[in-house]
């Protein structure tokens, strides 16, 4: 018995709504029209006092209604004038605020009339900007612009159009933040630019799946005290489950024959051959798993099931 599609899509829902984050802030400030975003003078001296002043101004925008676009523009214009501590803190707070506001934005776009209008003009892989230029409805255009400027991107999931976090929008800040947050943004950008699962099925290749898990494991090893450890650990847990159990609509072992998926076999072997398992607990476990599976002629025998229950028990994933 596998986990339900609802449970397996929890990782996707986390990326769409991210309700599991532990440091969400209040929703943010009203946009300031025509705010300049020009880079500050290179000779500007960064002091603790001036950095704190910028930080407080940023927060005053972030905590007002509909202020994500203005806060983002302000941060872009000022981030080179603050300390790495304040830069990191503001970028994390911006992420938190975007996540907090995403539920409301999603609800607004899932209104049947809004969905109908969007779907009528939508073309594959359209962005918010492309839809803005295509629609003749000013109300819809304003909604699409707000979504884009609030740090979201458009994606289709199971026939509906959703706003999701656009982590590429954080790229402009990675040169100023601490190393762990830079790597965290890169991990999340990969997740949201190419969603891994949909409707209980795996949407990426097996080698890509394992490589993502390895990057997540590396982050956890490199930054055990990172503020974003919990979020990456959640992803790692999801990918671990996908690796050893598959998904409802992409089972690791065929439901009828109990034989391991041929592409999974090839992908797992290729990653194991290409990477040393010396410093990777994930690869060590995968290598041991493949040895047991090979002894069982790549069938889901009792020996394979017993190994999984002992080393990767399903009970570890039920409450995620």
What does this protein structure show overall?
This protein has helices spanning 5-8, 10-17, 48-62, 68-78, 84-109, 112-121, 128-134, 138-149, 179-193, 206-222, 229-245, 262-274, 281-295, 302-311; strands spanning 152-157, 160-165, 197-198, 201-202, 246-247, 250-251. The chain is mostly helical and 320 residues long. The chain has two domains: 20-195; 206-316, no CATH class. The strands form three sheets. It has a two-stranded antiparallel sheet. Helix 3 packs parallel to helix 5 (84-109), helix 4 runs antiparallel to helix 5 and helix 10 packs across helix 12. The two termini are 17 Å apart. Residues 1-43 have low confidence and may be disordered. Residues 1-41 form the signal peptide. Keywords: Signal.
Spatial ordering of strands, largest sheet? 1-2
Distance between the terminal alpha carbons, to the nearest Å? 17 Å
Strand content: 5-15%
Main β sheet profile: 2 strands, antiparallel
For this structure, the quaternary state is single chain
Helical fraction equals 55-70%
